[in-house]
Write a structure and sequence with these properties.
alpha+beta, five-stranded antiparallel beta sheet, 14% strand
Length: 189
């Protein structure tokens, strides 16, 4: 019976309410921006031998799950869902970016509290999880010898193009743009 009452107590706890809803006084208290602005590593000079594309996507799906993601999908990179980043002055032209990095890897993470609605630490933690998983997947792809970068996207459009339908309890943030030859869609689809 105690476990059933815990969520009810938590919802009326002013400290919990502040954790979920009170906007951060200092954005430096969340690691998300540090991850987003971390320098990208180098691309491994020799490309790895890859399995067939469907197997490669299944392997990435398992890695995403290991890192804390809940779903992965791949779409062709479209200029329509690319968004300028903080470094938009130094960013390549969207058409050039779409040509150079033709695949967009979209990753959903579990989100008990959506960051647009929960401005406190709980909602902002979802942004950290998303940034961390995307950063790790991009780094892994570069270690395979392919280009990969994390970029802001219209997450709803990119997710739809990748065959993802993030529902309640999932969040899609930035995406990984890459030249790693992947099939479009979801693993096993």
């Amino acid at each position: 019976m105690g476990l059933l009452r815990w969520p009810l107590r938590r919802s009326r706890d002013p400290y919990w309410d502040a954790f979920v809803n009170r906007p951060l006084a200092d954005p430096a208290n969340v690691i998300t921006e540090a991850i987003r602005h971390a320098p990208e590593g180098r691309i491994f000079p020799a490309r790895s031998e890859l399995p067939e594309p469907a197997r490669l996507l299944n392997d990435l799906d398992q890695l995403v799950a290991f890192l804390g993601g809940s779903a992965i999908g791949v779409a062709r990179t479209e200029t329509a869902f690319l968004r300028p980043g903080d470094d938009s002055g130094a960013s390549p032209d969207p058409a050039e970016l779409a040509e150079d990095l033709p695949f967009t890897v979209v990753i959903a993470v579990h989100a008990e509290h959506h960051p647009d609605k929960a401005k406190g630490m709980a909602g902002q933690h979802v942004l950290h999880e998303s940034a961390s998983v995307n950063f790790s997947i991009a780094a892994y792809i570069r270690e395979l010898g392919y280009r990969a970068t994390v970029r802001p996207v219209d997450s709803a459009a990119a997710a739809k193009a990748a065959g993802l339908e993030p529902g309640r309890g999932e969040y899609v943030g930035d995406a990984v743009l890459t030249d790693l030859p992947l099939p479009t869609g979801r693993p096993g689809a």
